[in-house]
Amino acid sequence: MLPNYHRMWEVVEEHRFTAELSALIPNAIRADEFLEGAVWALARKPTLGTNAAGNVWHLPMFGTDLAIYYTFDDTKVYMHSIQAAPKD
């Protein structure tokens, strides 16, 4: 079954997330490009990532060693942190 692309969540970058992203990728244009795909995907399907613990999810970023940690409710996805992806 195809995802319902008409249903979209608002994606909110928390202060900690923004600070960590700026430290990891100081170039603002590059940081925006980096996030574009993740925001697009999470706005349409927040369960795309893996449930890390409780209501915290993580989404490994393809082609990097980073993962976005986030939570979501019925209307919003909250990006809380960006860290080195856990090793399997």
Total DSSP helices: 2
Give the N-to-C terminal Cα separation: 29 Å
Over the alpha carbons, how many angstroms does the gyration radius reach? Answer: 13 Å
Amount of beta strand: 25-35%
The biggest beta sheet reads:
5 strands, mixed
Extended strand count = 5
In what order do the strands lie side by side in the largest sheet? 1-5-4-3-2
> What is the string of helix and strand elements?
EHHEEEE
Q: How much helix is in the residues?
A: 25-40%
Low-confidence stretches: none
Task: Provide the residue-averaged pLDDT.
Answer: 89
Net shape: globular
Which structural class do the helices and strands define?
alpha+beta
Instruction: Describe the oligomeric state of these chains in a short phrase.
Output: single chain
